[in-house]
Amino acid sequence: MVVLTPANADNWRAIARVRAAAGQREWVADSTYYLCLSAYGDLWRSYAVEADGATVGHVMWAVDPDDGSHWIGGLVIDSEHQRRGLGRATVQALLDLWEREEPSLSGTPYREAALSVSPDNQAAIGLYRSLGFVETGEMEDDEIVLRRPRA
Ligand SMILES: CC(C)(COP(=O)(O)OP(=O)(O)OC[C@H]1O[C@@H](n2cnc3c(N)ncnc32)[C@H](O)[C@@H]1OP(=O)(O)O)[C@@H](O)C(=O)NCCC(=O)NCCS
């Protein structure tokens, strides 16, 4: 349903156009910020979320150097494309990618997925819970942490 393509010279402009809806922007940064974080930092990897040949979202991932967990970040489905199952398909595609490819991609075996989310962001929390993520009681800045052991 979705294809994840690493950010590259061909797709970064389309990723930069991905926008959350107005009422959602307190929960995520601009996709340009995520692209820069991935390009200039040494942790995150940005991907275009593609469906039916169009770029419909952004997602990035990183391995926590302390505990080896695989983190999802910067998940945004463009406001024009939400509520069509693309957010769920994106998270599932990342879990599948790690199952299939790790440890070749990062050098770290895939054992556990993790993410943080604003406690107000009920739509995202509903999505993550439906995929088996569970709150742990940890906080990451002002966000709650959810984890999901490898199936
Ligand atoms: C959260 C987000 C990625 C979901 O993407 P999406 O493609 O709209 O989600 P899906 O269509 O795959 O829906 C999956 C589940 O998410 C939840 N959900 C998504 N949008 C929702 C909404 N507006 N209200 C309530 N629940 C919602 C539901 O549980 C839904 O399952 P259901 O359709 O069986 O009810 C999208 O709303 C988004 O980009 N939001 C802004 C950025 C953001 O908050 N990112 C998360 C940061 S942690």
Question: In terms of topology, how is this protein built?
Answer:
Blueprint: E1 3-6, H1 12-16, H2 31-40, E2 45-51, E3 54-63, E4 70-77, H3 86-101, E5 112-117, H4 122-130, E6 134-140, E7 143-149
Parallel strand pairs: 4-5
Antiparallel strand pairs: 1-2, 2-3, 3-4, 5-7, 6-7
The chain binds coenzyme A (COA).
Task: Summarize the model shown.
This protein is of the alpha+beta class and 151 residues long. The protein has helices at residues 12-16, 31-40, 86-101, 122-130, and strands spanning 3-6, 45-51, 54-63, 70-77, 112-117, 134-140, 143-149.
Mean pLDDT over the full residue set: 98
Q: How would you sum up the major sheet? A: 7 strands, mixed
| Structural class estimated from helices and strands | alpha+beta
Inertia-based shape? globular
- Strand arrangement, major sheet: 1-2-3-4-5-7-6
Bound molecules: coenzyme A
Main attributes?
alpha+beta; GNAT family N-acetyltransferase; about 25% helix; binds coenzyme A; single chain; about 30% strand; Aminopeptidase; seven-stranded mixed beta sheet; 7 strands; 4 helices; about 150 residues
Describe what this molecule looks like in 3D.
The chain is an alpha+beta fold and 151 residues long. The protein has one domain: Aminopeptidase. Strands 1-2-3-4-5-7-6 form a seven-stranded mixed beta sheet. Coenzyme A binds next to strand 4, helix 3 and helix 4. InterPro entries: Acyl_CoA_acyltransferase, GNAT_dom, MshD_Acetyltransferase. It comes from Aeromicrobium senzhongii.
